[in-house]
Design a protein that fits this description.
Blueprint: H1 4-7, E1 12-13, H2 15-21, H3 24-35, H4 42-58, E2 63-67, E3 80-81, E4 83-86, E5 90-93, H5 97-101, E6 102-106, E7 122-127, E8 133-136, E9 139-148, H6 157-177, E10 186-200, H7 201-205, H8 208-213, H9 238-253, E11 258-263, E12 269-274, E13 277-278, H10 279-299, E14 302-305, E15 319-327, H11 340-359, H12 361-367, H13 371-374, E16 389-390, H14 393-404, E17 439-441, E18 446-448, H15 458-480, H16 485-500, H17 512-520, H18 529-533, H19 539-547, H20 553-606, H21 614-644, H22 650-678, H23 689-693
Parallel strand pairs: 2-9, 16-17
Antiparallel strand pairs: 1-8, 2-3, 4-5, 6-7, 7-9, 8-9, 10-12, 10-13, 10-14, 10-15, 11-12, 15-18, 17-18
Helix pairs in contact: 6-15, 9-10, 11-15, 11-16, 14-16, 15-16, 20-21, 20-22, 21-22
The structure holds adenosine-5'-diphosphate and magnesium ion.
């Protein structure tokens, strides 16, 4: 068997490939352009394109595509072949610098939130040279940003790159205050843990709800779920193992550093984690990972469910976004150091994050809001919709002592003076350290646990990067002009802790008491997507994004439109699917079953048995009642769907979806689950939860 190191990254036009295939000076020039984030000139692009094409063809590629991430959160590609006709009816394989650096995409069907009039439907894609080109399915994929001709971002990569730049610029100012002159840029690093379900293809194909919506819209609780906890980190089944093995290999070829794979809490649930990388790369890699997971599952006759809550009553799936910031000299700024200066720098960055998360808690909540994630947040296994930071009790105590200027420590209690004394060693808290906290400090990084499993991690990272950039800017503005740096920093840290400590919470986030306390602390608790999203356009949020050049007010408006609209569409599709299932399958099936019960009842009556056939008589009554209620409710749902169309205003429509349509769908669900429990197995038209969750043997 081939060793992993021999094929790792073999399908990526990475640094090694570039070094090998590009003339020395071209390679150097390209590296400089990438580092300085400048535009590639056409001469250089032509040479790079040629080398890239030769490499791609040798590795089996026949086509190329500009691979981009429209605002829908998925990836898009338009394949073009390398062939170019020459005389004599022959073709040659061609790929020019122009084709490498810029493409035109007729993106009129991608949502633009009004940023691009349909008569000017074209957008253009531009190579993001910081992310390597790769080969997927015989196609050379060039990671690109997608913009309108007016220069508006129509994708998630553009604002992400902008946010990284903003963060780097401000972090650099702070780092320089500590004399780190050798640092040229600061990058955010991300490791995204991905949760997912695997189910057998045969059960998937029998559930229209899974096919159309990615989640089950009903399903009675199975006799056994996750209560025994026997799946978590359990032995991996051979079929799943074969899937993971192939997935690992394919991801490794693409230079994606998947590291751990294990079973998760719910039956059929698993998790995959890569080794962290730069925020932009991690985002691209996570998109590719999701795509490959789905594709490879199919090859193994399984389906990979990425929905945040495919099944009620068992855990949903998230995507833990581990985030830290590091210098290009390799220093993780969230690592408490060994010297007083390193500690002071760490504390300053920690405070910037505390301030950022507190001031922009609404934006963080918004960044992960989706119709799917609404079913997961606040459920028993997921963090609540309230944002708070977990520091661990030791660090919290240290912050408190700093704020109040009181001694910290066991025997020889000591007053801490920032920049003079080293921080007391604090424990990396491992007891329940992050299970219930949405934003947990885990020693040298923060783990944001709220992102949903199906979403791109671009949005949360755009938000974290920008909010932290803003806090760092304020700090740098103050400290660069300080007469007495250490003294000013000490004051700044104390003030920040005092103003923003309300966001720190080390208790149990699943506890009802926390919801009350959070309210008393004035923290936001936006339970649903529309409740959260309406704050996207709050003045302070528009100011944040436009001040740092991440989103213009126009672009943010477009975001709002697109996301609200997406929410409405998802719920509408779910409601239509539910109606289809009820009308075409469930009502007829229940009628069939009732008929069988009536036949049986009558047959028994005819034999003149001395006792009443209770099973039949009581069930006929109960089921007929429920069927009538179901009939009524589904007619109401149909009527609501007709009304919904008439709401022109997108905000009103979203609230209508949430307050009326979803509520009614839930009522229908309760009825369906009760009916399923008593209907004969062979008559009920859909695989049950038990059959689905335990379908992979
Ligand atoms: P834990 O199990 O404590 O959550 P892991 O070491 O398993 O931690 O890491 C989980 C994820 O966090 C992995 O993707 C890992 O690469 C990533 N990670 C580790 N260190 C950092 C860091 N400094 N910055 C960002 N991500 C990190
Ligand atoms: Mg983790």
């Amino acid at each position: 068997m081939e060793s992993v190191s021999s094929y790792f990254g073999s399908m990526v036009f990475n640094d090694t490939a570039m070094r090998r295939r590009l003339p020395h000076d071209t390679y150097d020039q390209l590296q400089r352009t990438i580092k300085e984030k400048r535009h590639l000139d056409i001469g250089l692009a032509n040479i790079v394109a040629h080398a890239m094409k030769e490499w791609a063809i040798e590795n089996g590629a026949t086509h190329f595509t500009h691979w981009f991430q429209p605002m829908t959160g998925i990836t898009a590609e338009k394949h073009e072949s390398f062939i170019s006709p020459v005389s004599g009816g022959k073709v040659i394989m061609e790929f020019s610098g122009k084709e490498l650096i810029r493409g035109e995409a007729d993106g009129s069907s991608f949502p633009s939130g009004g940023l691009r009039a349909t008569f000017e439907a074209r957008g253009y894609t531009a190579w993001d040279a910081t992310s390597y080109a790769f080969i997927k399915d015989g196609t050379l994929c060039i990671p690109t940003a997608f913009c309108s001709f007016g220069g508006h971002a129509l994708d998630k990569k553009t604002p992400l790159l902008r946010s990284m730049q903003a963060l780097s610029k401000q972090a650099l100012r702070v780092v320089k205050l500590f004399g780190n002159e050798d640092v040229h840029y600061v990058d955010s690093s991300v490791g995204a843990e991905q949760e997912y379900f695997l189910i057998d293809k045969s059960v998937f194909e029998k559930r229209k709800d899974l096919i159309y919506t990615g989640r089950t819209l009903f399903g009675a609780k199975p006799p056994k779920g996750q209560e025994l906890g026997d799946h978590y980190f359990g032995t991996i089944k051979p079929r799943v193992f074969a899937f993971m093995k192939e997935l690992d290999e394919e991801l490794w070829k693409l230079g994606i550093t998947v590291k751990t794979e294990h079973n998760e809490v719910a039956p059929g649930q698993h998790e995959l984690a890569p080794i962290y990388s730069s925020c932009n790369i991690a985002t691209d890699h996570n998109q590719i990972t999701m795509e490959l997971m789905q594709k490879i599952a199919k090859k193994h006759d399984m389906v990979c469910l990425l929905h945040e809550k495919p099944f009620a009553g068992v855990n949903g799936s998230g995507k833990h976004n581990n985030w830290s910031i590091a210098t290009d000299t390799g220093v993780n700024l969230l690592n408490p150091g060994e010297t007083p200066a390193e500690n002071a720098q760490f504390l300053l960055f920690l405070c910037a994050i505390i301030k950022a998360v507190d001031e922009y808690q609404d934006l963080l909540r918004i960044s992960i809001a989706s119709a799917g994630n609404d079913h997961r947040l606040g459920a028993s296994e997921a963090p609540p919709a309230i944002i708070s930071i977990f520091t661990g009790t030791d660090l919290e105590e240290i912050l408190k002592c700093l704020e109040l200027d009181i001694p910290y420590g066991g025997k020889e209690k000591e007053l801490m003076k920032i920049g003079v004394h080293t921080l007391p060693r604090f424990q990396r808290d491992t007891t329940d350290r992050n299970r219930t906290s949405p934003f947990a400090f885990t020693g040298n990084k923060f783990e944001f646990r709220m992102p949903g499993s199906s979403a791109s991690i671009a949005d949360p990272n755009i938000t974290i990067n920008t909010a932290v950039a803003s806090a760092l800017k304020e700090f740098a503005d103050i400290l660069e002009n300080a007469a007495d740096f250490e003294n000013e920093m000490h004051k700044l840290i104390r003030r920040t802790i005092s103003e923003h400590k309300r966001i720190i919470f080390n208790g149990n986030g699943y506890d009802d008491a926390w919801t009350k306390e959070a309210e008393a602390r004035g923290l936001c608790n936006y339970k649903t997507t529309p409740d959260a999203l309406v704050h996207l356009l709050d003045e302070k949020n528009i100011r944040l994004f436009s001040d740092f050049g991440v989103y213009s007010a126009e672009e943010l408006n477009a975001q709002y439109e697109i996301r609200m609209e997406n929410y409405c569409k998802v719920i509408r599709i779910e409601a239509l699917t539910l109606l289809n299932m009820v009308n075409k399958d469930i009502l007829p099936a229940v009628s069939t079953f009732l008929q069988q019960l009536c036949d049986s009842y009558q047959a028994q009556k005819a034999t003149a048995l001395p006792v009443e056939p209770l099973y039949e008589s009581s069930l006929i009554k109960d089921l007929t009642n429920k069927r009538n209620q179901l009939f009524e409710r589904k007619n109401q749902l149909q009527a609501l769907l007709n009304t919904d169309q008439t709401y022109y205003d997108i905000t009103q429509r979203a609230f209508f979806c949430k307050d009326r349509i979803l509520v009614l769908m839930n009522e229908i669900r309760v009825l369906l689950d009760e009916m399923e429990e008593v209907t004969r197995t062979d008559v009920w038209p859909y695989p049950t939860y038990g059959a689905i969750l335990f379908s992979v043997k």
